[in-house]
Amino acid sequence: MAIPIGKAAALTGVKVPTIRYYEDIGLLPPPDRTESNRRVYGDETIRRLGFIRHARSLGFDIDAIRILLDLQDDPGRSCSEVDRIVEARLEETRERIRSLKQLETEFERMLESCSHGIVADCRIIEALTPRIEH
Fold this sequence. Notes:
The chain has six helices and three strands. The protein is mostly helical. A three-stranded antiparallel β-sheet has the order 1-3-2. A hairpin with a 5-residue loop joins β2 (32-33) and β3 (39-41). The protein is elongated, with a radius of gyration of 24 Å. The chain starts with a strand and ends in a 6-residue tail after the last helix.
C-alpha cells in the first residue's frame, strides 16, 4: 500500500520533518516516489517508523536504535546485543531515578526549612542564591 508522508506522520505520530530526517540518516530506507515525486511508504516502513518512535519514547538514542533495527533485519542472530542495549538503558534509567530522588529530598528539605513568612526571610530563596566571595 502506498501511504503518503502526511498520512504516515498521522499514523505513527512522527512529524514529517522527522520522517525526512530519519531517511537522511539511514534509519528509514529511501521511499518510493509517485510520478509527481511525492514520497510514499509501504506497510513495512510504517512499522519501522512506529518502532523508531516507540524506541525514542523509551529514551533510546539514535545509535542504539540503528543497532536494534539492524538486529531486527537479521532475525536469526542472537539477541544478546539487544539485551546489552536494554541493560545499558535500564542502568541509565536507574541512575536518573536516583538523581530525581536526591532532587526530591532536596526540595522537601527546602520546604521543611521554610517558615512560610515573607520573601525577605525565605530560606528557599537563600538556599538558591549562590554565595559569591571576593
